[in-house]
Amino acid sequence: MIRRWLTALFVLALVGAASAGIYRYRQSLTATNYPMAPARQGDFLVIVRCRGELKAERSVGVYAPRVPDLRIAWLAPGGEPVKKDAPIVKFDSSTAQQQLQQKDAALKQAQATLDQAVAQARITAEQDASDLADARFTVERARLEVAKQEIVSRLQGEAAQVDLTIAAQKLKVQEATVALHATADKSKIASLTRLRDQAQADVELTRARIAQMELRAPIDGILIFASNYSQGWVNAKPFKVGDNVFAGMQIADMPDLSTLTMDAKVEEIDRGRLQPGQTVVVRVDSLPELAMNAKLDSVSLMAETTYEFPPSRNFRGYASLPHPDPRLRPGMNGGMDIVTQRIPGAISIPSKALFTRAGKPVVYTASSGGYRPREVEVLARNPDEVAVKGLAAGSMVSLVDIEKTEAKQ
Q: Which structural domains are found in the chain, ordered by start?
């Protein structure tokens, strides 16, 4: 009988020891399964996080020349860095070259016609000068005959007087003829000169148009081609080789990469905490490993209307990048963390590790075999981390609410 009781007590002791071991094992297993994070000590930066996109403060448009019938023959690769004065667009100049040959031939013909008219006018002027000299000589000879009236008969004197009158009339006619020839030649030469000058202007204009058939980069930057709306808004696509371009149309835009600025939306509740000159850390979504230090240049004093749909009004913050990374491009989405306060030697924990218990902030610290809630004082909050007081550096805190989790289990 005593042996049976001893055996039963021994079995109960084994069961109790096994239950205690299983309980402790489950506690230790539960503790290790919960996600944990250490409490870190250091300078805590209170930030205002804003979302926005990169924009170029300086941008230069590339426009088609004032030339009719333009067709794109070659384009530089879009989105690639381009140096100043490098060729970026070439237009088809074959038609203009043919026109230049035709107009150059017309110019040579006009010049030859003008030269011929000048030579003919010179010959006519020399002939008129000779005829005019003969007429004057005839008049002088007639005057000499008239002067002999005293020594010749009356009949001969009257005949000499008539010859003088006729010679004088012929001289006047010859002078009028010379003046007429000079005026006619001058008018003809002037007309041919105008035709020659017009042909020369056409040649120079065609040569100037051919010289404009190649566009060069106005600044260092990247090339962003504009959309071609000739086929309608629905079918609009960036300009490509073979497209026709109207004179003066904007073909591309060249933003200056050295003037990149983060343009971000600022919430109204954070506007009063910001002022120019504050430290900013800029990040872009496509390059998450890149963190760029900058300064807050300005914050809009009033809400600005955006061109988004639906339209909205927001405060805007601007931070220019002093040394932009070559991989950055305008239009990249990202954000900036604006440092509004610095707390030295603060204890910081992830935001997920802070919970509320009985209306007070608490964290769950790992202890032997479980977790223990500990009240803390919140000094500052950031989107991802919280500065607290009342917690030792290096403490492991849970990232889940232990009480709620265990209640569900």
A: 34-55+257-408 (2.40.30.170), 59-90+214-255 (2.40.50), 95-211 (1.10.287.620)
